[in-house]
Amino acid sequence: MAEHAVIIAFRYESTSLDRLFELEDFLQKAISGSGVGKYDGNEIAADGSAATLYMYGPDADRLFEVVVPILRARSFMKGARVKRRYGSAKSGANEITSTID
């Protein structure tokens, strides 16, 4: 089965990474605790202006369902773009992008 992905891109606008690391802890626990995949890490702009979070599993929709409530609970995630990819990046897999409100 192809590996699906949920990729979250957002404006962070802070040089303090405390809130981001706290979010990552919540995401890791929720994803592993629900058995829907794995949290794989982040990319953060050197100036803290933006960040991207990566998570993978066999079902992008299920992974999305687990992480969205966590994202919505954090004000700095408002406007984040969440891409669900249904297969590997090299496969030209279908993708859906939504925004956290």
What layout of secondary structure does this protein have?
Blueprint: E1 4-11, H1 18-34, E2 38-44, E3 50-57, H2 60-72, E4 81-85, E5 95-99
Antiparallel strand pairs: 1-3, 1-4, 2-3, 4-5
Helix pairs in contact: 1-2
Question: Descriptors for this entry?
Answer:
alpha+beta; Alpha-Beta Plaits; 2 helices; 5 strands; 33% strand
Describe the overall structure.
A hairpin with a 5-residue loop joins β2 and β3. The model has no long low-confidence stretch (mean pLDDT 95). This protein has a five-stranded antiparallel β-sheet with strand order 2-3-1-4-5, covered by helices on one side. It is 30% helix and 33% strand. It has one domain: Alpha-Beta Plaits, CATH 3.30.70.60. It has two helices and five strands. The chain is globular and about 35 Å long. The termini are far apart. α1 runs antiparallel to α2.
Give a quick rundown of the structure:
This protein has two helices and five strands, in the order E-H-E-E-H-E-E.
Termini separation comes to: 32 Å
**CATH T-level topology:** Alpha-Beta Plaits
Rounded mean pLDDT is 95
| Strand arrangement in the largest pleated sheet | 2-3-1-4-5
